[in-house]
Design goal:
The protein has nine helices and eight strands. It is α/β, with parallel strands linked by helices and about 325 residues long.
């Protein structure tokens, strides 16, 4: 190759690489020598396996390496005052059968085995989030969810009665399939609004007014940074609807899968929805392509060996 032509080729190779180094933030463009260019050319000719990547080695988990840890402090007791972002994690409990101890068939005493796995995956994410407190509904499924997260995070669980699920009327021994049919009809009806009694009980407006003071208080206070609220699908729908400004006539058109987390940020007094219905156990929801009500139907049908569409044993 003539010397003049070789000089042009080297210049053409060096110029874009130098520009890339500068764009990446380097103070001085990298000058490659002829031997380095020769090695680069040889490597370029070497066949590579498709998608070949160098392994990333780290002495600690990636999240832990970039997020500073902070010692949790009990809520309201000498927490650091800040004018920065305050974040509230609104969580729905894990999968449950709604049939354990407690009052009535919708009380729910615990999570299913899959429900615990769902929350354990979520709890792993919270190991690097310094929570000031975990507020939880008194119902068993919410308590089990909160305690699972607390064991990994170290935050204190505080039971708040106002976070219990929307209260239905008296079922008086009604079978689970009939209850589920009534629940489905309530949410499917175009006439359901904020003032429609839920199965003859509480309305969503009443639920929202019961729960909202806790959310509103966090907008006013500056003595906290991160808290989690473990509640229920109905509670979360009412809270998120209010944050989004959905005053009616219909309910907020959002879904809340088992074990999901929502994120509400406060830059000032105003809450802003930052994340909606994220499921750590299925981030892209490849296994959650139906509504949460359909998931619940499948869970209950499998557990009780009853077809909810026909109301007869399978």
């Amino acid at each position: 190759m003539p010397a003049e032509l070789g000089g042009r080729v080297a210049s053409a190779v060096l110029r874009p690489r130098a520009e890339q180094d500068l764009v990446a933030g380097g103070c001085e463009a990298k000058r490659e020598t002829a031997p380095e260019l020769s090695r680069a050319a040889e490597e370029g000719d070497r066949p590579r396996r498709r998608h070949e990547r160098r392994p990333i080695r780290s002495e600690q988990p990636l999240l832990a390496s970039v997020l500073p840890l902070r010692t949790p402090v009990p809520y309201g007791e000498a927490m650091a005052t800040t004018d920065g972002c305050r974040r509230l994690y609104l969580i729905r409990h894990g999968e449950t059968l709604y049939g354990g101890g407690g009052a009535g068939p919708l009380a729910g005493d615990d999570l299913t085995e899959r429900g615990y796995r769902q929350i354990e995956v979520l709890a792993e994410l919270f190991t690097v989030v310094p929570l000031d407190a975990i507020y939880a509904s008194p119902l068993g499924r919410a308590q089990a969810t909160a305690e699972t997260i607390a064991r990994r995070n170290g935050a204190r669980v505080i039971t708040v009665d106002a976070l219990r699920e929307i209260q239905p009327g008296d079922f008086g021994g009604t079978e689970i399939p009939a209850i589920f049919a009534a629940v489905r009809a309530f949410f499917a009806s175009p006439d359901t609004d904020w003032d429609t009694p839920y199965l003859g009980g509480e309305t969503y407006r009443e639920l929202r007014e019961r729960v909202w003071p806790l959310i509103e208080e966090h907008g006013r206070r500056r003595d906290w940074r991160r808290v989690a609220v473990v509640a229920h699908g109905g509670v979360n729908n009412a809270v998120i609807g209010r944050v989004l400004g959905a005053e009616g006539p219909g309910l907020a058109n959002i879904d809340q899968d088992f074990g999901c987390v929502n994120m509400i940020d406060y830059g000032g007094d105003r809450p802003v929805l930052r994340l909606l219905n994220f499921t750590a156990y299925d981030p892209l929801k490849t296994g959650l392509e139906v509504s949460s009500l359909d998931v619940l139907r499948d869970v209950l049908e499998s557990a009780f060996q009853v077809s909810f569409d026909q109301g007869v044993p399978k």
